[in-house]
Amino acid sequence: MLSNLGYFDKQQTRPSRRTCLTMLGNIPSMKTKPTKLIVAENILRLMEAAPPPRNTQLGLSKKAGVAQSSIGRLIRAEVEARLDLLEDVARALGVTVGDLTTERDASYIDYNRKQYAALSTPDKEKVESFIAFVIESSAKGAKRDTLEFTQIGRLTEDEMKGESAVGNERLNQQTLTANETKDQTVPRRHQKRH
């Protein structure tokens, strides 16, 4: 298939290294910084949010079972971390290796993945539904049917008197809901009294 697209060198039967790198470099979702910088930023961010002793290099190194100097080199982005080291650090911080090596962009959602995994299926569906609702309601040009706090202002004295009068009014058959008018008739159900 690649040969049909012209990605093979004429004298080679496989793509050249330069061509492959060029093809991969055009993928917009690829990371924009070196992995060691991403790992350093993520470890620092997770350490700041972690409770003691994991919020210090020494505490994290003890929890991970690695040398403090290794944690320091990771944080200063001096080395490309070995997978076994990343696994130990991730375990100590309570995250996955992917969490350490993934660059946070605008689409990143920060949440406790272990607690999410422990949720029931209906609760997971609620979380996903809420995210979809927020995204949909904040979409450009979306009509808002909800009242926002910024729309609430101070009531005048007359408005407060009116609100308090409505709140103190006894409910009866003559009371209307917000969607009813006086012209609408509500069928009454007569119950036999015993």
UniProtKB/TrEMBL annotation:
Q: Which organism is it from?
A: Paraburkholderia saeva
Could you tell me which InterPro entries the record lists for this protein? Cro/C1-type_HTH, Lambda_DNA-bd_dom_sf
Its taxonomic placement starts with:
Bacteria, Pseudomonadati, Pseudomonadota, Betaproteobacteria, Burkholderiales
Task: Kindly provide the name given to this protein in its UniProt entry.
Answer: HTH cro/C1-type domain-containing protein
Ranges for domain HTH cro/C1-type come to 56-100
Query: Which SUPFAM superfamilies does the annotation name?
Result: lambda repressor-like DNA-binding domains (SSF47413)
**Disordered: where is this region?**
158-194
Polar residues composition bias: residue spans:
170-179
This entry's Gene Ontology molecular function terms read: DNA binding
**Residues making up the signal peptide according to the UniProt record:** none
